[in-house]
Amino acid sequence: MNQGEQARYASNTVVAGELLTLADKIVLDIGCGDGKFTRFLARSGASATGLDVNPRVIERAYTKAREEGLDIAWIEGRAEDLPFSDASLDTVIFSNSLHHVAPEEMDHAIAEAARVLKPGGDLYVMEPVAEGAYFEATRLVNDEREVRNKARATVGEAARHGLDAVTEVTFMALRTWENFEEFAAEQAERGAKRKQVLDERGDEMRQLFLDAARHEGGKLAFDQIFRVNLLRRR
């Protein structure tokens, strides 16, 4: 964001609901994880498919969708090798997932998204931005600056794959914790690497957390910044 620019508070589902026509559309959610966003797509009337490289999260996604009575297809697969025919989908989505594709494969993943989209179909890319208070608080345990910037650059070059930029939206999500200990415990649960950093550099991490925080409603609050790029297949 530019200096002094203030993004609005929103959520990925709110922004997607504003930018996309989902009812009766054939939609693919790439890197779906446990399927939370995919389930939103299905509830919005889309014929939704969730794709992820991890079979364990696919199983969890299937279970949660079944519990909610949602008819969603779940596929184990990779963004750079989509198991769909040419021009078969109305919408392809990367929801907080493009930067998890190997840097050398990101352009291929965008090319694959373009291949499977129908002419006039939409590519929706939501990515966290490597700046702001939340990023500063977490950068020691999760500094994804390089891959996030690579993802942004790749989206910026999507025209060569027949994808034209429609709009870009930046929004913020509010994250709050009671104290550093609550925050640290949550981070430690998200992987051994994060726990190791906390064990080795906990005091530095605490200071970064406190420096980046603001007090709001009796809690320590942080704005997490996200960017959405909407592109359309020629």
Mean pLDDT comes to 96
- Rg from C-alpha positions? 18 Å
Proportion of helical residues? 25-40%
How far is it from the N-terminal to the C-terminal residue, by CA? 28 Å
**Could you list the spans in which at least 5 consecutive residues all have pLDDT below 50?**
none
Number of strands: 9
Q: Tell me, what's the shape?
A: globular
Q: What order do the helices and strands follow?
A: EHEHEHEEHEHHEHHEE
Main sheet record: 9 strands, mixed
Structure write-up:
With 234 residues, the protein is α/β, with parallel strands linked by helices. Helix content is 38%, strand content 29%. The protein has helices spanning 12-19, 36-43, 55-67, 106-116, 133-138, 145-156, 180-188, 192-212; strands at 8-9, 26-30, 47-52, 73-76, 89-95, 117-128, 163-177, 214-216, 219-233. Strands 1, 2, 3, 4, 5, 6, 7, 8 and 9 form a nine-stranded mixed beta sheet that branches. Helix 7 (180-188) runs antiparallel to helix 8. The longest helix is centred in the last third of the chain and has 21 residues, at 192-212. The chain starts with 7 loop residues before the first strand and ends with a strand.
Features:
234 residues; 9-stranded mixed β-sheet; 8 helices; 9 strands
Write the layout of secondary structure elements.
Blueprint: E1 8-9, H1 12-19, E2 26-30, H2 36-43, E3 47-52, H3 55-67, E4 73-76, E5 89-95, H4 106-116, E6 117-128, H5 133-138, H6 145-156, E7 163-177, H7 180-188, H8 192-212, E8 214-216, E9 219-233
Parallel strand pairs: 1-7, 2-3, 2-5, 3-4, 5-6
Antiparallel strand pairs: 6-9, 7-9, 8-9
Helix pairs in contact: 7-8
